[in-house]
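ARCHIVE CARD
CATEGORY: sequence design from structure
SOURCE FIELD: tokenized fold
FIELD CONTENT:
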């Protein structure tokens, strides 16, 4: 019975992996084929490895008047890294204040943060844009990243981690003369290191895939992210360089995949600790 169950589970997992990998394979195969053939619907499942010219063309020259792909990758990389690091830093500090400090309206502050979980980005997009406009941050890297840094989800996660810290450890640190910043640096951050790594991976991918906010706040082509760039490459369907578009899509996959692969061990450890 167990052998049959294992076989079924592996078959379902293999089918799921195939369904996820098929679009990526189609994009890779299309990046090596003629754009006119792709536009006609003659997309072969077998890549033509002798025709990889779309990659250097998109990477260095750009497509359909867009910036070179290497430039858009750098913008996306800076945006994703800034959002991930900023969210983690602000969430750690806010959770630390809510858990370990006693000040008026402490619970009220936490519940205000918690309530923002119920407000998706689309609901806050107009007032957020108005604030950025009043501050003169439209078409700036600050305006591109700052509104996406605050994170109620990460604050709630770190709050739960900090609540699990034994009172004895807090008292021992206080008796050793550790101030608030030293306690945070030497005790809390090492304790939550695996969770920080897992959260960094999730938030990096979140920042990398942003579309709506960069589309609204950054009309300057120099601030185009790779996601916006792919959309701009698709003009009139009959004139679209589909091989270059698919090559760009493959290049856009590399940084988030690299982050996940390099941090896989810490990512799994952080998820496992979060379930305890």
């Amino acid at each position: 019975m167990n052998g049959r169950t294992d076989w079924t589970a592996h078959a379902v997992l293999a089918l799921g992996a195939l369904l996820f990998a098929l679009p990526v394979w189609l994009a890779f195969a299309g990046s090596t084929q003629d754009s006119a053939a792709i536009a006609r619907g003659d997309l072969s499942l077998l890549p033509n490895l002798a025709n990889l010219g779309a990659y250097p063309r998109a990477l260095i020259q750009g497509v359909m008047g867009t910036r070179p792909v290497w430039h858009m990758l750098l913008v996306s990389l800076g945006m994703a890294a800034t959002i991930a690091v900023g969210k983690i830093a602000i969430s750690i500090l806010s959770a630390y204040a809510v858990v370990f400090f006693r000040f008026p309206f402490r619970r009220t502050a936490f519940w205000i943060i918690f309530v923002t979980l119920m407000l998706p980005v689309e609901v806050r997009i107009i007032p957020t844009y108005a604030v950025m406009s009043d501050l003169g941050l439209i078409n700036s890297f600050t305006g591109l990243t700052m509104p996406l840094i605050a994170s109620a989800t990460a604050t709630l996660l770190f709050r739960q981690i900090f609540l699990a810290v034994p009172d004895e450890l807090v008292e021992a640190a206080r008796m050793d003369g550790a101030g608030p910043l030293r306690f945070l640096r030497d005790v809390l951050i090492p304790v939550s290191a695996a969770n920080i790594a897992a959260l960094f991976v999730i938030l990096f991918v979140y920042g990398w895939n942003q579309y709506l906010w960069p589309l609204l706040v950054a009309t300057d082509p120099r601030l185009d992210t790779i996601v916006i760039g792919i959309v701009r490459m698709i003009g009139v369907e009959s004139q679209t360089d589909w091989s270059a578009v698919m090559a760009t899509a493959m290049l856009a996959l590399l940084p988030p995949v690299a982050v996940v692969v390099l941090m896989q061990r810490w990512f799994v450890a952080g998820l496992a600790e979060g379930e305890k």
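CARD ANNOTATION: Residues 69-100 form the longest helix (32 residues). Residues 173 and 183 are 7 Å apart (CA to CA).
SHELF: design records, drawer C
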